[in-house]
Amino acid sequence: MTLPEPVTQPEPAAVTDRLPDAALVRRPARVRLLWLLVVVVVLAALMVASVALGSRSVSWGDVWVALGGAEGSLEQAAVTKRIPRTLLAVVVGAALGLAGGVMQGVTRNPLADPGILGVNMGASLSVVTAVAFFGLTSPTGYVWVAMAGAAASAVFVYAIGSLGRGRATPLKLALAGAVTSAAFASLVSAVILPRNDISGSFRLWQIGGVGGASYERIGQILPFVAVGFAVCLLSARALNSLALGDELAAGLGERVAVIRATAALGAVVLCGAATAVAGPIGFVGLVVPHACRLLVGVDHRWLLPFSALVGAALLTAADVVGRVVARPEDIEVGIVTALIGAPFFIHIVRRQKVRDL
């Protein structure tokens, strides 16, 4: 007598459709470590390329001599100026990539991004307003004001996305963020255009870029970036619980509201610091976490550090591309990341099921 084969119940379609492709595959530790090595090597190569490539051709000999502090020729002087620009691209890219990964984890929204949700533009509006009407001149003050604007914008967008029937769905948040970003961008232009004394300095800053970097500017944001990194990375394990759903996370002993507030605070600090020094650079926080999930899966203990490294690599590569394709002029990294991120955003939207949006 043969026993009938047990019948397994398939997972509900509503659940499996919401799982990202990367969640269906468990990444072994050795695979993750291999990808970590690859990403670190790529980032190092991009940093060397960022120092060597630009409007002026620089030999590798001049690069090594300039790294020692020499400025005996124009080539070596160019390398000396590119070093802080490269470091700023790494810091800002890492901050935006990590902030995007945290925002997607906090909201469980695949469309979450500091640019799409209006966080970066809120930080920009607060900085421009403080400079134009309150005479703000301190670079450290820029960071505090930018963080306040980023936080206020995040709360505003989430409140708008929560209106009406149902919860704050990914599409509602994306639409609320897009409308808020457009409105804030118009307000930024309205504040800057009548002010000839500040319009020149803020014109390129509005686009988002790392040109004009200096060690002093990097040093001013490093404490804030370090705090944001620490808060976000320490929230990784709790974000794994949050990904299971609020009720299950609460059943596991997690304080859901505290997790969300703490992780979101870390992301806001990173966005505010990055925007204060480099302007509103978009789409890095959207593209990077999705790419990292394909490499290391959805475990935030791996995903968040990888998002920081890949974000640094992406922004450094974008800066190199912007300097090379339009010699001797520069294309700001905000334009390059938009060209990369906008099609990716459309692709993510098209992949989502209508009922999930």
UniProtKB/TrEMBL annotation:
<feature type="transmembrane region" description="Helical">
    <location>
        <begin position="83"/>
        <end position="103"/>
    </location>
</feature>
<keyword id="KW-1003">Cell membrane</keyword>
<dbReference type="InterPro" id="IPR000522">
    <property type="entry name" value="ABC_transptr_permease_BtuC"/>
</dbReference>
<feature type="transmembrane region" description="Helical">
    <location>
        <begin position="333"/>
        <end position="350"/>
    </location>
</feature>
<dbReference type="GO" id="GO:0033214">
    <property type="term" value="P:siderophore-iron import into cell"/>
</dbReference>
<protein>
    <submittedName>
        <fullName>ABC transporter permease</fullName>
    </submittedName>
</protein>
<dbReference type="Pfam" id="PF01032">
    <property type="entry name" value="FecCD"/>
</dbReference>
<dbReference type="GO" id="GO:0005886">
    <property type="term" value="C:plasma membrane"/>
</dbReference>
<dbReference type="GO" id="GO:0022857">
    <property type="term" value="F:transmembrane transporter activity"/>
</dbReference>
<feature type="transmembrane region" description="Helical">
    <location>
        <begin position="173"/>
        <end position="193"/>
    </location>
</feature>
<feature type="transmembrane region" description="Helical">
    <location>
        <begin position="257"/>
        <end position="282"/>
    </location>
</feature>
<feature type="transmembrane region" description="Helical">
    <location>
        <begin position="115"/>
        <end position="136"/>
    </location>
</feature>
<feature type="transmembrane region" description="Helical">
    <location>
        <begin position="142"/>
        <end position="161"/>
    </location>
</feature>
<keyword id="KW-0472">Membrane</keyword>
<dbReference type="InterPro" id="IPR037294">
    <property type="entry name" value="ABC_BtuC-like"/>
</dbReference>
<feature type="transmembrane region" description="Helical">
    <location>
        <begin position="218"/>
        <end position="236"/>
    </location>
</feature>
<feature type="transmembrane region" description="Helical">
    <location>
        <begin position="302"/>
        <end position="321"/>
    </location>
</feature>
<keyword id="KW-0813">Transport</keyword>
<keyword id="KW-0812">Transmembrane</keyword>
<comment type="similarity">
    <text>Belongs to the binding-protein-dependent transport system permease family. FecCD subfamily.</text>
</comment>
<keyword id="KW-1133">Transmembrane helix</keyword>
<feature type="transmembrane region" description="Helical">
    <location>
        <begin position="33"/>
        <end position="53"/>
    </location>
</feature>
